[in-house]
Amino acid sequence: MSDRFAGRVACVTGAAGGLGRATAAMLAREGARLILFDRDAEGLAETAALCPGAVTVAGDAASAADVARAAATARAELGPVELLAVAAGIVGPARIAIDVEEADFDRVFAVNVKGSWLAAKYFIPHMREIGRGAVVLFSSTAGLVGSPRLSVYSASKGAVTLLTRSLARNHAAENIRVNCVCPGTIDTAMAYASISQAGDAAAQAEAEAFQKAQHPMNRFGTADEVAAAVAYLLSDAAGFTTGVALPVDGGRVA
Questions:
Q1: Are 39 and 111 within 8 A, CB to CB?
Q2: Would residue 97 count as lying in a domain?
């Protein structure tokens, strides 16, 4: 691995597992000093074991107080954050939009959209102080095209995609880049939790086969493949890239 992030301070939200853990581990291998944030304290500890010297903060991505505390902890223990990966997210119910309960709708938007906004709100000021920075939000291919089963999730990720583009325009002149990744179905616990909502074992097998068939490469992606895309967007190699929604989807939206 390279040392392209050597000495740089990075924050990863949703770091307790899945795409967040893979991203944190990759950034750590390439020299970043990490603040890890998630509501799952046990999972955070497991991720921290992969990231020597990492600082962990347990909290809710949808809580302004918790995100502000993470930003303050980062500043106190590591210094201003230059790199931010906002991986915290939930899928919500696999139902058409009008069948989703209000509480579920609110929670999906709170974590996926408000959580992304809060991370930007509290960490971009760090980047302003040091005169540079890079942010990667986590959208989805469901944030680029509609989803028949994950309608509210799709709507929330569509909001993340447009939030990315607005933030990119807001901060480009400040030498702060903002992009997002749009994964297809990735081989993680979150994907299989969604598939499990299909019903019995036969229905789940059918749902899994259907999901794979949506990807021309006829497989699910890996967490490391998404992490590699995030690392690229955070790196100096993407220095003239901002406002991009990058599919990592095996050709799903090609």
A1: no
A2: yes
Residue 252 covered by a domain: no
Structure tokens at 33: 């000093």
> How much is the pLDDT for 201?
74
Task: Kindly calculate the radius of gyration of the chain based on its CA atoms and give it in whole angstroms.
Answer: 17
Nearest to 126 by CA among 175, 67, 80, 61: 80
Rounded to whole angstroms, how far apart are CA atoms 28 and 5?
Answer: 8
Q: How many domains does the chain have?
A: 1
pLDDT at 198: 64
Quick one: CA dihedral 70, 64, 193, 164, positive or negative?
A: negative
Backbone angles phi, psi at 37, to 5 degrees: -130, 135
* Domain assignment of residue 114, yes or no: yes
Burial class (CB in 10 A: 0-12, 13-18, 19+), 76: exposed
For the chain, list residues with pLDDT below 50. Answer: none
What is the model's pLDDT at position 30? 97
Closest CA to 191 of 109, 91, 70: 91
pLDDT at residue 101, as a whole number: 97
Q: What is the pLDDT of residue 213?
A: 66
- Residue 153 appears among annotated catalytic residues: yes
Domain annotation covers residue 86 = yes
Residue 127 sits in a domain of what CATH number? 3.40.50.720
Structural domain for 28, as ranges: 9-186+222-236
Q: In Å, what is the CA distance from 118 to each residue of 5, 6, 50, 242? A: 24, 26, 26, 19
Which residues are within 8 A (CB) of 214 and not within 5 positions of it... i.e. 6 or more apart? Answer: 184, 185, 252
